[in-house]
Amino acid sequence: MARATKDDADEEERQRFADRALGFLEDVIYWAIAVVLIIGSIALLIAQFNTMLGLRNAGAKIVMLEVLDGLLLIFIFVELLYAVRSCLRSREIVAEPFLIVGILACIKEIVVLSVEAATLLKDGPQFSRAVVEVGVLGVVVLVLALAAFVLRERRRDVGDPAEQDVRQAEEDQEKATSR
């Protein structure tokens, strides 16, 4: 009987060690992803600035399309960084940031297609295809927004522990600041 208890304790200790080791490796990978996203965001900002400088003699429509296209891509990177941060904080994958990335990606494509569609007015079939694609992307945006809303409401009802931790930290910071 004592031997079984010792074996159970050894097995439990091995499980705890494996959990700690894998948790550490998971954090390292998430941090590496975060670093790559930060570097990518900075590179995109620099590239966006260079694009703006290169287009200073171009038409306003081209400049605005390029700027908006680049900025939406930067927003996608930043939202992915937020998703990684949420995963690190709550130790679980949170779906909402990925839904927002999907919404941003769809909006980015809608903007690009809308400008292209304006140049395709004379070409009936391609214009029709672009209009249908914009419509489908619009529906996808609505579905993703509805899914994000439902998730947020469900989290409010259940009481998300990560969100409660953030609220508690904000309250503690306010108390420390008011002193």
From TrEMBL:
The chain crosses the membrane at residues 28-50, 62-82, 94-115, 127-151. InterPro entries: P_starv_induced_PsiE-like. It is a multi-pass membrane protein. One of its GO terms (cellular component) is plasma membrane. Keywords: Cell membrane, Membrane, Transmembrane, Transmembrane helix. It is found in: Cell membrane. Pfam families: PsiE (PF06146). Residues 159-179 are annotated as: Disordered. This is Phosphate-starvation-inducible E.
